[in-house]
Amino acid sequence: MKRDSRLSGVLHVLLHMAETQEPATSEQLARAMNTNPVVIRRLMGGLRKAGFVASAKGHGGGWVLGLPLERITLGDIHAALGAPPFLAVGHRDEQPRCLVEQAVNGALGAAYAEAEALLLKRLHQVTLAELSRDFHHRLQSSGRGASHEH
């Protein structure tokens, strides 16, 4: 089963954007992500609606952050992406007639819900500023200089 990597990808894009003072074009961000600019534009749509990014058209235009990194949590970004489910597991039958399967679904459903709630709570505690600080610490420790490219 294919995993939904949009949250990871968007966080990557936003941190690249935070590293530059100039607007970033979809083409530039696509190169950083090794993807197509159309993918970037799709990802940015929900973020723009939430106010996390803004775009300007024309020469010198591109994507810019709409809020300081301290005011954006990973949970906020997850919500802006439409709150996709974290877990790729589910029930064999969503509405079983079998009492055994009903018991299995009850136990697994409760565990899945608890795990997702715990993960979402944690994501709302982590800001993009924290990710940026971690990146800068890793960059300094790596000895790669000021470059933030791959």
Word description of this protein:
This protein is mostly helical and 150 residues long. It has one domain (6-142): Arc Repressor Mutant, subunit A. Helix content is 54%, strand content 5%. The protein is built from six helices and two strands, in the order H-H-H-E-E-H-H-H. Helix 2 packs across helix 3 (37-49) and helix 4 (74-80) packs across helix 5.
Question: What topology does this entry show?
Answer:
Layout: H1 6-18, H2 26-33, H3 37-49, E1 53-56, E2 62-65, H4 74-80, H5 99-123, H6 128-142
Antiparallel strand pairs: 1-2
Number of domains: 1
Q: Which blocks of ≥5 consecutive residues have pLDDT under 50?
A: none
The CATH homologous superfamily corresponds to: Winged helix-like DNA-binding domain superfamily/Winged helix DNA-binding domain
Q: Helix/strand/pairing class, anyone?
A: mainly alpha
Strand order of the largest sheet: 1-2
Question: Count of helical segments?
Answer: 6
% residues in beta strands: 5-15%
Question: What composes the largest sheet?
Answer: 2 strands, antiparallel
State Rg: 19 Å
Number of strands: 2
| SSE run | HHHEEHHH
Stated plainly, the CATH topology is called Arc Repressor Mutant, subunit A
State the CATH class. Mainly Alpha
Pfam family, one: Rrf2
Organism: Roseateles asaccharophilus
InterPro entries: Tscrpt_reg_Rrf2, WH-like_DNA-bd_sf, WH_DNA-bd_sf
Protein name: Rrf2 family protein
